[in-house]
Amino acid sequence: MQQRKPDYPISPFFYERWSPRSFASSEIEKEVLLSLLEAARWAPSSMNEQPWYYLIGLGKDKELFLDCLVPENQLWAKKAPCLILLLYRPYFSKSQKENPTALFDCGLSAMSLMLEAHLRGLITHPMAGFHHEKTLQSLRIPKEYKPICFFAVGYQADRELLPPHLQEREFPKGRLNLDEICRFGPFEV
Predict the structure, then answer these.
(1) Predicted structure pTM score
(2) Which among 27, 86, 99, 123 is least surrounded, fewest beta carbons within 10 Å?
(3) Between the CA of residue 150 and those of 5, 14, 127, 161, what are the distances in Å?
(4) Which domains does the chain have, with CATH numbers?
């Protein structure tokens, strides 16, 4: 497996987490899933709005969730014991004005879920590859919510269980250098 190494000292917890596609079919205890959702619940949000909502697909319900994914994601996500859909409310609940940080807030919540999963020895893989309209209809999403992404959640299996074209991609990826993602002071023209 490719080793990732940060340029500056940080906890290994951050760079050891990645998003594999090879899932074991082992079930996840409901209490463990509730702990992941509890971590997501405690994420910060603008005006404490907490614009996120999670739908959990387990057992026979998982098939409804799986059917919403594009075929390439279905190929490997079918092995995950749990699929989660992250939704958001784009408007503040009290004023009904647009919440410009709703997606950012949901990202914080999602990362909290993913980090709690990592702490518990689980893997997560977020997916933007899904059929939007089918998701709205099949999962009966109320009009005030918009889907963001799905997550596959479970325990990691050997990469050899994936189709060959996915085995090639089943390793932790590097990151852009700091000078490619930030600078001190304003942009220079």
Answers:
(1) 0.94
(2) 27
(3) 28, 21, 5, 22
(4) 28-166 (3.40.109.10)
Query: What are 94-115's pLDDT values in tens digits?
Result: 999 999 999 999 999 999 999 9
Quick one: pLDDT at residue 1? 47
- Identify the sign of the CA torsion 29, 34, 36, 39: negative
As a 3-state breakdown, the chain gives helix, strand, coil percent values, each rounded to 5, of: 40, 15, 45
Q: What is the DSSP string of 22-77?
A: -B------HHHHHHHHHHHHTS--GGG---EEEEEE-TTHHHHHHHHB-HHHHHHH
Q: Please, what is the Cα angle at 162 between 85 and 164, to 5 degrees? A: 130
